[in-house]
């Protein structure tokens, strides 16, 4: 909407003429969850879909970011150790994930946010903008509907992909052929490493499965793991695409 009336200006004395006011893209938003996203969250909690499908369902969707005036270490969910805190300059709430890293909470709907905290004020944004905000604050994770049971935690590589508008094409590391090829390139030259594979982790996002030569002494075994860790830490691709890693020697 453009104002061309040369009449009075605003309270600061700045004329209205020539200004453009953009309508909010969420002006008619009811605050309800997007049906596709709501279904994906139900399937996630039932173990019917994995994180890749959930990130795809999040892509392009409106989410709710909570803003609060005052928060003092509010416990969100004791079962997942999610604890709230806030950035004093913005009032945007962050949460602490079970591994201690910081996450930005996003909600599928206003009722989901109200279940989490009735005093939070809803700010509707596209998931891409929410992810970009998390990245700019150096918060590596997103957590979806933390007031509900089993809230999905979106890993750092997926948050970066969403922030860059690539959520629909993001591939988890255990399914990424480029990751497997890079791991083989890095680790197969290491003496005593026979084969390398990638699997879903038990304690981390990704497990690097190492087949080692049999009969290694403890000293040689430890030396191999040190070389593996050094090789992984020197790869930009691994740093970009793997969030958390566990080594699984065999």
Tell me roughly what share of residues is in helical segments. Answer: 25-40%
CATH architecture of the largest domain: 3-Layer(aba) Sandwich
**Strand portion:** 15-25%
The number of E-state strands comes to: 11
List the helices and strands and how they pair.
Elements lengths: L34 H11 L5 H8 L3 E6 L7 E3 L4 E5 L6 E4 L5 E5 L3 H7 L4 E6 H10 L4 E4 L8 E2 L1 H8 L13 H11 L5 E8 L5 E7 L5 H16 L2 H6 L3 E5 L1
Parallel strand pairs: 5-7, 10-11
Antiparallel strand pairs: 1-6, 2-3, 3-4, 4-5, 7-8, 9-10
Helix pairs in contact: 1-2, 4-5
Describe the structure.
There is one protein chain. The chain is α+β, with helices and mostly antiparallel strands. The chain has two domains: 35-169, Uncharacterised protein PF11572, DUF3234 (Trna Endonuclease, Chain: A, domain 1); 173-249, Alpha-Beta Plaits, CATH 3.30.70. It is 31% helix and 22% strand. It is built from eight helices and eleven strands. The chain has helices spanning 35-45, 51-58, 110-116, 127-136, 156-163, 177-187, 218-233, 236-241; strands spanning 62-67, 75-77, 82-86, 93-96, 102-106, 121-126, 141-144, 153-154, 193-200, 206-212, 245-249. A six-stranded mixed sheet has the order 2-3-4-5-7-8. Strands 9-10-11 form a three-stranded mixed sheet, with helices on one face. Strands 1-6 form a two-stranded antiparallel ribbon. Helix 1 runs antiparallel to helix 2 and helix 4 crosses helix 5 (156-163). The chain is elongated. It starts with 34 loop residues before the first helix and ends with a strand. Mean pLDDT is 84; it is low at 1-6, 71-84 and 86-90.
